[in-house]
Amino acid sequence: MLRLDVYMLLTLQDALLDPSSTTCAVALLNLSEIDVLIGAVKETVHLTLAQAREILTDMKNGLVTYCDMISGALDLRERNETSARTLFQDCLKSAWGKDTQGVIYCLERLADVSKWSIEFHGQEKWPVLYLCSAHISREKLAFYKALLFIGDLFMEVDQVTAQNLFIVALEGFTSMDVHRSRAQCMLWLGDLAQRKGETTEAAELWKSARSLFERSLQAKDVAAIDLRLVALEQGHKKSLAKLTTLHSPTIALVKDEDNSNIQVVSRKADETTTVML
């Protein structure tokens, strides 16, 4: 994050020297994309994009397409999925064969099925197409992200394959020091561990993911993990309470009406023991 902050400050410093330059427009695009990622209010993003679009349109610069791409990312974040899908697909057609980074940008967002609602989950082609594009362009980060997204597709049908894909992707992201993607791998590996009843491992993975999401300023993901951890803790408490009920005997003294016999009755969930005194 520090390297990004320094780079952005230097870029903005150059941009202020010429507010109508390409450098300024690129700085505004970068700012708007960061704002989308960290959850800034949509009005701020729209304003920044409008400034960048005006500069690039006046210059007849092809980078103006990135305004639409980032608008699509904002729409997707705000759950305006029909608009987002249209923008990404239109930008993809425009960039195909001419702008590798633009293609990668659109495919990444179309391929991340976890970001789309259920009616858009029939798009299995996008993660595969994203993987092929990443392989052809030799984009390592995109390649590992594609493995992550394909693993997500396998979560409900083949958990072993999903786990293997997440592990490979995690190793790649770790070598590249990509916090947010590492966190996503750990989150889903934790989900798989929970499904197998490995709750201790699930909690450890979720806590590691939470720390990375927090460092990446992903408040919604942090909140989602907190809910998982709370639910896990509540489940543990219920299990302990049930075990205590099952194994702790209830002891009572029972007397005959004439007090001639006294019995000690010990009751468990599955048996009753009586001792005559």
Q: Report the biggest beta sheet as strand number plus sense, adding barrel if it closes.
A: 3 strands, antiparallel
If you average the pLDDT, what whole number results? 84
Low-confidence stretches: 1-7
Please identify the structural class as seen in this structure: mainly alpha
- Secondary-structure element series: HHHHHHHHHHHHEEE
Strand content: 5-15%
Looking across the biggest beta sheet, what order are the strands in?
A: 1-2-3
Per DSSP, the total helix count is 12
* Overall 3D form: elongated
Number of strands: 3
Over all CA atoms, what is the radius of gyration?
28 Å
Task: Report the helical percentage.
Answer: over 70%
Termini distance? 76 Å
Task: Summarize the entry for a quick read.
With 277 residues, the protein is mostly helical.
Topology:
Elements: H1 2-17, H2 22-38, H3 42-58, H4 64-77, H5 81-95, H6 100-111, H7 125-137, H8 140-154, H9 159-176, H10 179-195, H11 199-215, H12 219-247, E1 250-255, E2 262-267, E3 272-276
Antiparallel strand pairs: 1-2, 2-3
Helix pairs in contact: 1-2, 2-3, 2-4, 3-4, 4-5, 5-6, 6-7, 7-8, 8-9, 9-10, 10-11, 11-12
InterPro entries: TPR-like_helical_dom_sf
